[in-house]
Amino acid sequence: MEGEHGHIEHEGFTLPLSYRQKWVRRHRWVTLAVFAAVALLLNIPPFFCCIPIIALLMTCSPQCAIRFINWIVGKWHTSTIFLVEIFFDVNVRLFGDTFDHFDDRSLMLMNHRTHLDWLFLWSVVGCYGNLDSWKPITKSSLKHIPIYGWGMQFALHIFVNRNWTEDEQELHNKLQLYNMFDMPVQVLLFPGGGDLTLKTKTSSDKYADQRGFPHYNYVLHPHLTGFLYVVNLLRNRRLDSIIDITVAYPDALPKTELHFIKGHIPREVHYYVKVYPLCSIPGGDDNLSDWIREVWAEKEERLKYFYANRQFPDKEYCAERHVKLPGVYQAFLLWIIIDLFLGLMFYYFFYFTIIYFIVGIGWAGYRITSEGSIDKWFLSDVYNRNRADNFDYKPPAHLL
Fold first, then answer.
1. Is the pLDDT at 291 greater than 90, yes or no?
2. Quick one: pLDDT at residue 327?
3. b/e map of 280-297 (b: 16 or more CB within 10 Å)?
4. Cβ burial, residue 252 (10 Å; 0-12/13-18/19+)
């Protein structure tokens, strides 16, 4: 059934709302004001405060600059969990394999159900992964969103626009940079592409008809080109495991950020996690293509079972993800300290602060303008000082 904004509705079940969620629904305008105030607190002052520091570090040591950015972005992601789990009281539950921690060098594969999948996934990665090294592969249009998109460029997230000639270069540059600095990296890839809507499902069904595959109702058929490229580039040095993540929304499905702010909040978000060590991943493009299709067929059946039975088929392991409150509060406190520090600087060292921002942001602006974008500025400085390993892999023509 098609819902608002073209999203496909799957029949869920009703879960009782918590007191906080009821309050959010009753006081939507207050929630919107609080959300906007927190967003301003977490984004604008720290962002502009860090630009001069990043510009200086990029001039002296790009590697130090990138590590500093990863740390800052990790703290920002961690503080955002405060809004999801504490303010909006969303309960994130995990099923599937038992583990203590995701591998520092891993590729995460996930079905894309709604625009906000990333928001709830931060809770999982924050507990079992490393938000400092979390690098999603996302659509290129997001990089131009003020503040948020600029921050994604600073963090060297990977942007694709479904043009393989351009996407291949983007993947090569960013992934080789992680290899070059020997950075721990957890790459997130949505093999199906966009989130599940009537339009994307129609396109997926057309793709299936052309190749004799069955139609899927809960996931989109995986795109092979980018997946093969990422695995083949990372597996030699930067890949220990592939983590298959299945997300399901048992009750409310927030389709956009606006729905979430207005109080259309899920009481729970369920994740089924299956970890594949690198030794279990087949070699060769044809074998790897068959493997990802099998994983996606299992994911389709898993979700079909979930929406029919209100639970995943394997319930041997069930863990409610409780947020690590000290880490979240520390990250949230960091932004408050930065805001207070900026205020004190403007009050006691007004002229010095003005010069600090003019010189730092001016230099960063010059480099961004000369290179064309923030991430191109970073890549230019990095590759001018280092040489990436040669990587000549090309996906087979029949898989493009």
1. yes
2. 66
3. ebeeebeebbebbbebbe
4. buried
Asked whether the beta carbons of 240 and 277 are under 8 A apart, the reply is yes
Mean pLDDT of the region 370-387:
72
Give tens-digit pLDDT for 34-48. 767 766 666 677 777
Give SS3 for 147: coil
Instruction: Look up residue 362 and give its two tokens.
Output: 């001016």
Which pair of tokens denotes residue 293? 């299709």
Are 262 and 254 spatial neighbours (Cβ–Cβ below 8 Å)?
Answer: no
Q: Dihedral sign for Cα 191, 77, 139, 1, please.
A: positive
List Cβ neighbours of 240 (8 Å cut-off, separation of 6 or more): 103, 104, 105, 106, 277, 278
Task: Give residue for tokens 């997946």.
Answer: 227
Contact 255, 5 (CB under 8 A): yes
Query: 113 and 190 in contact (C-beta within 8 Å)?
Result: no
User: How far apart are the C-alpha atoms of 46 and 33, rounded to whole Å?
Assistant: 20
Instruction: Give DSSP secondary structure letters for 282-323.
Output: PPSHHHHHHHHHHHHHHHHHHHHHHHHHSS-S--S-EEEE--
Residue 350's pLDDT is what?
84
**Cα–Cα distance measured from residue 30 to residue 49, given in angstroms and rounded to the nearest whole number:** 28
- Which residues have CB under 8 Å from 68's CB, separation 6+? 53, 54, 57
Q: How far apart are CA 367 and CA 381, in angstroms?
A: 10
Q: Under a CB-based contact definition with an 8 Å cutoff, are residues 300 and 56 in contact?
A: no
Q: What percent of the chain has pLDDT over 90?
A: 12
Q: Are 203 and 367 in contact (CB under 8 A)?
A: no
Question: In angstroms, how far is CA 31 from the centroid of its own chain?
Answer: 24
Mind listing the pLDDT tens digit for each residue in 206-237? 989 988 899 999 999 998 888 999 898 888 76
